[in-house]
From TrEMBL:
The GHMP kinase C-terminal domain, residue ranges: 209-261
Name this protein carries in UniProt: 4-diphosphocytidyl-2-C-methyl-D-erythritol kinase
NCBIfam families per the UniProt record, alphabetical: ispE, PRK14608.1
Binding site for ATP: 98-108
Family, per entry: Belongs to the GHMP kinase family. IspE subfamily.
Active-site residues annotated for this sequence: 15, 140
Protein role: Catalyzes the phosphorylation of the position 2 hydroxy group of 4-diphosphocytidyl-2C-methyl-D-erythritol.
Length: 281
């Protein structure tokens, strides 16, 4: 019997983009990216309870997000539609990851819903099939279904898995919600960084093409990044922001910088994971 049951706490971990290059744009407007995703041990948590009426209900709505538009609800209903499943579920979501933080919280929640309900409903889809469903929900969803630290290309759906060294990350969260669409839609966004082969990428190399746009439009992001770079010159923004981070080889060094955070600055330490907690599901 699987350890994962209806009573389990199902994790939805955050991701960091260890670099993020925009290498082009498709005719349909979607941006072509190259990035390395790393999972960290900061996470939302989901619980599921079965329903006999076939409905999907989010018992803990996210403030400011209509239930019908919530990625967790959309993921569950998409799985029902794809498989013809008539079972239902009540979803309890404990949010620990900030909205608009670039940590993939909503996408991670959606992926955990797909993985969990595919298992609990015995829907029978493969992980590859779940990745394809996830892509209908958003570009970051497939990597959370994929479950491995990976070099991603395309719109974020083509993966070449990577081995990453142990690290502790100091993550700072500016008190601002950065809308992804506004960053990708900015006319000044650099969209022609030369692509690289996954085999040629080395840990610690690369940059985030979205960072200059976010810093120019959201001074809070620029301020947090400037402070962090005083202590870790390699610090960068994750995703389209707002969170910025720096990796450290040992936790003691990361903790020492963490203790120097100015009053009013929010942040936390998180360990890099070798894989998603549900990778072997």
């Amino acid at each position: 019997m699987s350890l994962w049951s209806w009573g389990s706490a199902w994790p939805a971990p955050a991701k960091l983009n260890l670099f993020l290059h925009v290498v082009g744009r498709r005719p349909d407007g979607y941006h072509l990216l190259q990035t390395v995703y790393r999972f960290i041990d900061r996470a939302d948590t989901l619980h599921f309870a079965p329903r006999d009426d076939g409905d999907v209900v989010l018992a803990t709505p996210t403030p400011g997000v209509e239930a019908a538009n919530d990625l967790a609800i959309r993921a569950a209903r998409l799985l029902q539609e794809a498989t013809g499943c008539r079972q239902g579920a009540t979803i309890h979501l404990s949010k620990n990851l900030p909205l608009g933080g670039g940590l993939g919280g909503g996408s991670s929640d959606a992926a955990t819903v797909l993985l969990a309900l595919n298992h609990l409903w015995q829907a029978g889809l493969s992980r590859a099939e779940l990745e394809q469903l996830g892509l209908q929900l958003g570009a970051d969803v497939p990597v959370f279904v994929h479950g491995r630290n990976t070099f991603a290309e395309g719109v974020g759906e083509a993966f070449s898995d990577v081995e990453l060294p142990p690290a502790t990350y100091l993550v700072l969260h500016p008190a601002v919600n950065v809308p992804t669409g506004a960053i990708f839609g900015a006319p000044e966004l650099k969209r022609d960084t030369p692509p690289i082969r996954p085999a040629d990428w080395r840990h610690g190399t690369g940059h985030n093409d979205l960072e200059p746009v976010a810093c120019a439009r959201f001074p809070q992001v620029a301020g947090h990044l400037a402070w962090l770079r005083q202590h870790a010159p390699h610090a960068m923004m994750t995703g389209s922001g707002a969170c910025v981070f720096a990796g450290f080889a040992d936790r003691a060094t990361a903790a020492a910088v963490f203790r120097q955070m100015p009053p009013g600055m929010t942040g936390w330490l998180a360990a890099g994971l070798t894989e998603h907690p549900l990778a072997s599901l």
